[in-house]
């Protein structure tokens, strides 16, 4: 069985991530379509996804603090990215209780 990994990214309020596919895992993990699980905390993000690396035709969804995104199986190789971070959108209690810097903390789990 492949090891589990967690990738940690912090996006400042001006952070972005271009459309890309996650293809760094083992051949077995990719061919089985094992899921990617992404958990976000802090400011909301405009998340893009689609069948092609085309920002103009990508779908957009806002991921709020605490949202979990899972893609696996047939959708495992979708192009995806972060168009923008929505400043000052984190829950007030989260900022007050944790002193999290302005921005978005993202934890992405997958089998490598």
From TrEMBL:
<dbReference type="GO" id="GO:0005737">
    <property type="term" value="C:cytoplasm"/>
</dbReference>
<feature type="domain" description="Fe2OG dioxygenase">
    <location>
        <begin position="2"/>
        <end position="112"/>
    </location>
</feature>
<dbReference type="InterPro" id="IPR005123">
    <property type="entry name" value="Oxoglu/Fe-dep_dioxygenase_dom"/>
</dbReference>
<feature type="binding site">
    <location>
        <position position="22"/>
    </location>
    <ligand>
        <name>Fe cation</name>
    </ligand>
</feature>
<dbReference type="GO" id="GO:0035515">
    <property type="term" value="F:oxidative RNA demethylase activity"/>
</dbReference>
<dbReference type="InterPro" id="IPR037151">
    <property type="entry name" value="AlkB-like_sf"/>
</dbReference>
<feature type="binding site">
    <location>
        <position position="80"/>
    </location>
    <ligand>
        <name>Fe cation</name>
    </ligand>
</feature>
<dbReference type="GO" id="GO:0008198">
    <property type="term" value="F:ferrous iron binding"/>
</dbReference>
<protein>
    <submittedName>
        <fullName>Alpha-ketoglutarate-dependent dioxygenase alkB-like</fullName>
    </submittedName>
</protein>
<keyword id="KW-0408">Iron</keyword>
<dbReference type="GO" id="GO:0035516">
    <property type="term" value="F:broad specificity oxidative DNA demethylase activity"/>
</dbReference>
<comment type="similarity">
    <text>Belongs to the alkB family.</text>
</comment>
<dbReference type="Pfam" id="PF13532">
    <property type="entry name" value="2OG-FeII_Oxy_2"/>
</dbReference>
<keyword id="KW-0223">Dioxygenase</keyword>
<dbReference type="InterPro" id="IPR004574">
    <property type="entry name" value="Alkb"/>
</dbReference>
<keyword id="KW-0560">Oxidoreductase</keyword>
<dbReference type="InterPro" id="IPR027450">
    <property type="entry name" value="AlkB-like"/>
</dbReference>
<feature type="binding site">
    <location>
        <position position="20"/>
    </location>
    <ligand>
        <name>Fe cation</name>
    </ligand>
</feature>
<dbReference type="GO" id="GO:0035513">
    <property type="term" value="P:oxidative RNA demethylation"/>
</dbReference>
<keyword id="KW-0479">Metal-binding</keyword>
């Amino acid at each position: 069985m492949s090891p589990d990994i967690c990738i940690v990214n912090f996006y400042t309020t001006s952070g972005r991530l271009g459309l890309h596919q996650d293809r760094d895992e083992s051949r077995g993990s990719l061919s089985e379509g094992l899921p990617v699980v992404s958990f976000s905390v802090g400011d909301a993000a405009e998340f893009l996804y689609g069948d092609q690396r085309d920002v103009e035709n990508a779908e957009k969804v806002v991921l709020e603090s605490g949202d979990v995104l899972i893609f696996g199986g047939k959708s495992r190789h979708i192009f995806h990215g972060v168009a923008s971070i929505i400043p000052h959108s984190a829950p007030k209690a989260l900022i007050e209780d944790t002193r999290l810097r302005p921005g978005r903390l993202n934890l992405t789990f997958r089998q490598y």
